[in-house]
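Re: that chain you flagged

S.,

Sorry for the slow reply, it's been a week of failed gels. I finally had a moment to sit down with the sequence you sent. For the record, here it is as I used it:
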Amino acid sequence: MKTTYNVRYVGFAVAGLFGIYSIFISGKRVTYSEKNIIEMTMLALGVLIIAILIWFLVSILKKNATLKKGLRATAEKYALDKKSFLKEFNSLVIAQHGGKGVYKI
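Prediction finished late last night. Pasting the structure tokens below so you have them in one place:
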């Protein structure tokens, strides 16, 4: 959940940067060198934001894989029916945190 909120913060930052760009920069006349500087800055910020989002995606996928592996191991350890165990866990996660849960069953 923490990482999901971080993705939202990045989205708000992108919206803020777009707003700042469109309000303060895009309507003004600039020289060719200033235009190049502005374009390179926006390109660098875009690449940085994409890199941050990819990093968040990888960390979310790693955490999700670790959780799924732990749930499978717990089901095997206590000789539980995997499908019903995962459904119960999914129901608990959805009830407490909302969203779509961990598994699509």
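What I noticed first: The longest helix spans residues 32-77.

Talk soon,
D.
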